[in-house]
Amino acid sequence: DAGVIQSPRHEVTEMGQEVTLRCKPISGHNSLFWYRQTMMRGLELLIYFNNNVPIDDSGMPEDRFSAKMPNASFSTLKIQPSEPRDSAVYFCASSPRGAGQYFGPGTRLTVT
Amino acid sequence: DAKTTQPPSMDCAEGRAANLPCNHSTISGNEYVYWYRQIHSQGPQYIIHGLKNNETNEMASLIITEDRKSSTLILPHATLRDTAVYYCIVRVGRTQGGSEKLVFGKGTKLTVNP
Predict the structure, then answer these.
(1) What average pLDDT does the structure give for chain A?
(2) Which pick of A48, A51, B46, B92 has the fewest CB atoms within 10 Å?
Protein backbone atom coordinates (compact mmCIF):
# COMPACT_ATOMS: atom_id res chain seq x y z
CA ASP A 1 0.00 0.00 0.00
CA ALA A 2 1.25 3.50 -0.81
CA GLY A 3 0.10 4.91 2.50
CA VAL A 4 -1.83 8.14 2.89
CA ILE A 5 -1.32 10.37 -0.13
CA GLN A 6 -1.49 14.14 0.10
CA SER A 7 -1.27 16.77 -2.60
CA PRO A 8 0.23 19.18 -3.20
CA ARG A 9 3.30 18.69 -1.02
CA HIS A 10 4.04 22.40 -1.08
CA GLU A 11 1.72 25.31 -1.77
CA VAL A 12 2.60 28.99 -1.91
CA THR A 13 -0.25 31.39 -2.40
CA GLU A 14 -1.15 35.00 -1.87
CA MET A 15 -3.42 36.26 0.83
CA GLY A 16 -7.07 36.13 -0.23
CA GLN A 17 -6.68 33.21 -2.61
CA GLU A 18 -8.54 29.93 -2.27
CA VAL A 19 -6.45 26.92 -1.29
CA THR A 20 -7.51 23.29 -1.65
CA LEU A 21 -5.59 20.48 -0.04
CA ARG A 22 -6.25 16.88 -1.06
CA CYS A 23 -5.97 13.56 0.68
CA LYS A 24 -6.33 9.93 -0.33
CA PRO A 25 -6.58 7.66 2.73
CA ILE A 26 -5.34 4.10 2.96
CA SER A 27 -7.80 1.73 1.33
CA GLY A 28 -10.08 0.06 3.86
CA HIS A 29 -9.59 2.68 6.57
CA ASN A 30 -12.90 4.09 7.72
CA SER A 31 -11.70 7.18 9.61
CA LEU A 32 -9.97 10.24 8.17
CA PHE A 33 -8.42 13.16 10.03
CA TRP A 34 -7.09 16.60 9.14
CA TYR A 35 -4.42 18.16 11.37
CA ARG A 36 -2.47 21.41 11.31
CA GLN A 37 1.02 21.85 12.75
CA THR A 38 2.81 25.08 13.59
CA MET A 39 5.75 25.86 15.83
CA MET A 40 3.57 27.95 18.11
CA ARG A 41 0.58 25.63 18.50
CA GLY A 42 2.01 22.20 17.78
CA LEU A 43 -0.15 19.54 16.17
CA GLU A 44 -3.88 20.31 16.25
CA LEU A 45 -6.81 18.22 15.06
CA LEU A 46 -9.06 20.22 12.75
CA ILE A 47 -11.76 17.71 11.80
CA TYR A 48 -12.34 14.01 11.45
CA PHE A 49 -14.70 11.76 9.50
CA ASN A 50 -16.01 8.28 10.17
CA ASN A 51 -17.38 6.46 7.12
CA ASN A 52 -17.28 9.73 5.15
CA VAL A 53 -19.42 11.56 7.74
CA PRO A 54 -17.93 14.52 9.66
CA ILE A 55 -17.94 13.64 13.36
CA ASP A 56 -16.01 16.40 15.11
CA ASP A 57 -15.15 19.72 13.48
CA SER A 58 -14.59 21.63 16.72
CA GLY A 59 -10.98 22.22 15.76
CA MET A 60 -11.78 24.06 12.55
CA PRO A 61 -10.53 27.57 13.28
CA GLU A 62 -13.24 29.55 11.51
CA ASP A 63 -15.70 29.62 8.64
CA ARG A 64 -12.92 30.15 6.14
CA PHE A 65 -12.05 26.48 6.59
CA SER A 66 -14.19 23.68 5.19
CA ALA A 67 -13.63 19.96 4.66
CA LYS A 68 -15.43 17.38 2.58
CA MET A 69 -15.24 13.65 2.07
CA PRO A 70 -17.37 12.77 -0.96
CA ASN A 71 -16.30 9.12 -0.91
CA ALA A 72 -14.14 6.68 1.03
CA SER A 73 -11.05 7.37 -1.04
CA PHE A 74 -10.88 11.16 -1.17
CA SER A 75 -11.09 14.21 1.05
CA THR A 76 -10.41 17.91 0.64
CA LEU A 77 -9.62 20.73 3.04
CA LYS A 78 -10.38 24.16 1.63
CA ILE A 79 -9.37 27.57 2.91
CA GLN A 80 -11.19 30.53 1.38
CA PRO A 81 -9.95 33.22 1.64
CA SER A 82 -6.49 32.30 2.86
CA GLU A 83 -4.55 34.47 5.32
CA PRO A 84 -0.85 34.56 6.31
CA ARG A 85 -1.68 33.05 9.72
CA ASP A 86 -2.92 29.92 7.92
CA SER A 87 0.69 29.12 6.99
CA ALA A 88 1.43 25.70 8.47
CA VAL A 89 1.96 22.06 7.61
CA TYR A 90 -1.36 20.30 7.10
CA PHE A 91 -1.48 16.55 7.70
CA CYS A 92 -4.09 14.05 6.71
CA ALA A 93 -4.32 10.73 8.55
CA SER A 94 -6.49 7.65 8.28
CA SER A 95 -7.17 4.71 10.54
CA PRO A 96 -9.00 1.42 10.55
CA ARG A 97 -11.61 0.99 13.25
CA GLY A 98 -10.18 1.05 16.76
CA ALA A 99 -6.52 1.24 15.75
CA GLY A 100 -3.72 3.78 15.33
CA GLN A 101 -3.72 6.62 12.85
CA TYR A 102 -1.47 6.62 9.80
CA PHE A 103 -0.31 10.04 8.67
CA GLY A 104 0.50 11.34 5.24
CA PRO A 105 3.63 13.34 4.39
CA GLY A 106 1.84 16.67 4.84
CA THR A 107 1.28 19.78 2.74
CA ARG A 108 3.43 22.76 3.60
CA LEU A 109 1.28 25.84 3.03
CA THR A 110 2.74 29.32 2.82
CA VAL A 111 0.40 32.29 2.49
CA THR A 112 2.15 35.56 1.65
CA ASP B 1 -8.92 12.57 27.79
CA ALA B 2 -6.31 12.17 30.50
CA LYS B 3 -3.25 14.37 30.27
CA THR B 4 0.26 13.00 30.02
CA THR B 5 3.63 14.22 31.25
CA GLN B 6 6.83 13.46 29.38
CA PRO B 7 10.39 14.75 29.76
CA PRO B 8 11.13 17.37 27.10
CA SER B 9 14.29 15.69 25.89
CA MET B 10 16.43 12.57 26.23
CA ASP B 11 19.65 11.23 24.78
CA CYS B 12 20.57 7.67 23.95
CA ALA B 13 23.66 6.00 22.53
CA GLU B 14 23.29 4.18 19.24
CA GLY B 15 22.75 0.46 19.75
CA ARG B 16 21.54 0.87 23.32
CA ALA B 17 17.96 0.61 24.51
CA ALA B 18 15.99 3.85 24.66
CA ASN B 19 13.46 3.95 27.50
CA LEU B 20 10.96 6.80 27.18
CA PRO B 21 8.76 7.41 30.23
CA CYS B 22 5.25 8.82 30.35
CA ASN B 23 3.13 9.69 33.37
CA HIS B 24 -0.64 9.53 33.09
CA SER B 25 -1.75 9.52 36.73
CA THR B 26 -5.36 10.50 35.94
CA ILE B 27 -5.94 7.78 33.36
CA SER B 28 -9.35 6.14 33.44
CA GLY B 29 -10.02 2.42 33.28
CA ASN B 30 -11.17 2.53 29.67
CA GLU B 31 -8.41 4.76 28.32
CA TYR B 32 -5.68 3.38 26.09
CA VAL B 33 -2.06 4.53 25.95
CA TYR B 34 -0.84 5.37 22.43
CA TRP B 35 2.66 6.22 21.27
CA TYR B 36 3.54 8.10 18.11
CA ARG B 37 6.76 9.62 16.88
CA GLN B 38 7.56 12.39 14.44
CA ILE B 39 10.81 12.45 12.57
CA HIS B 40 11.83 15.89 11.39
CA SER B 41 9.77 17.13 8.42
CA GLN B 42 7.64 13.99 8.31
CA GLY B 43 4.15 13.15 9.46
CA PRO B 44 3.68 11.48 12.84
CA GLN B 45 4.10 7.71 12.82
CA TYR B 46 2.02 5.32 14.89
CA ILE B 47 4.21 3.06 17.04
CA ILE B 48 2.14 1.05 19.47
CA HIS B 49 -0.79 1.17 21.88
CA GLY B 50 -2.05 -0.77 24.89
CA LEU B 51 -4.64 -0.87 27.65
CA LYS B 52 -3.36 -2.97 30.53
CA ASN B 53 -0.99 -5.61 29.31
CA ASN B 54 2.49 -5.03 27.98
CA GLU B 55 2.66 -4.95 24.21
CA THR B 56 5.40 -5.60 21.71
CA ASN B 57 5.63 -5.18 17.96
CA GLU B 58 8.37 -4.91 15.37
CA MET B 59 9.09 -1.31 16.35
CA ALA B 60 8.97 -1.20 20.13
CA SER B 61 7.70 -2.52 23.43
CA LEU B 62 5.20 -0.81 25.69
CA ILE B 63 5.36 -1.44 29.42
CA ILE B 64 2.37 -0.24 31.45
CA THR B 65 2.57 -0.27 35.25
CA GLU B 66 0.05 -2.32 37.16
CA ASP B 67 -1.75 0.79 38.43
CA ARG B 68 -1.67 2.17 34.86
CA LYS B 69 -0.46 5.56 36.08
CA SER B 70 2.66 5.44 33.96
CA SER B 71 4.18 3.66 30.99
CA THR B 72 7.50 3.25 29.23
CA LEU B 73 8.17 2.94 25.53
CA ILE B 74 11.25 0.84 24.84
CA LEU B 75 13.24 0.93 21.61
CA PRO B 76 15.48 -2.11 22.19
CA HIS B 77 18.36 -1.13 19.90
CA ALA B 78 18.19 2.55 19.05
CA THR B 79 19.57 3.73 15.72
CA LEU B 80 20.29 7.21 14.43
CA ARG B 81 17.03 7.01 12.46
CA ASP B 82 15.11 6.78 15.74
CA THR B 83 15.95 10.42 16.48
CA ALA B 84 12.50 12.02 16.67
CA VAL B 85 9.87 13.56 18.92
CA TYR B 86 7.94 10.84 20.74
CA TYR B 87 4.37 11.51 21.83
CA CYS B 88 2.49 9.63 24.55
CA ILE B 89 -1.29 10.03 24.28
CA VAL B 90 -4.15 8.53 26.26
CA ARG B 91 -7.72 8.31 25.05
CA VAL B 92 -10.83 6.19 25.33
CA GLY B 93 -10.97 3.46 22.78
CA ARG B 94 -13.57 4.03 20.10
CA THR B 95 -15.02 0.57 20.58
CA GLN B 96 -15.84 1.65 24.12
CA GLY B 97 -17.73 4.71 22.97
CA GLY B 98 -14.78 7.05 22.85
CA SER B 99 -13.73 9.47 20.19
CA GLU B 100 -11.02 8.97 17.61
CA LYS B 101 -9.60 12.30 18.70
CA LEU B 102 -5.92 12.39 19.63
CA VAL B 103 -4.52 15.34 21.57
CA PHE B 104 -0.79 15.73 20.94
CA GLY B 105 1.31 17.38 23.66
CA LYS B 106 4.90 18.51 23.30
CA GLY B 107 6.38 15.02 23.52
CA THR B 108 9.97 13.96 24.22
CA LYS B 109 12.71 14.88 21.82
CA LEU B 110 14.90 11.78 21.63
CA THR B 111 18.38 12.21 20.20
CA VAL B 112 20.30 9.06 19.36
CA ASN B 113 24.02 9.75 19.35
CA PRO B 114 26.65 7.78 17.41
Answers:
(1) 93
(2) A51
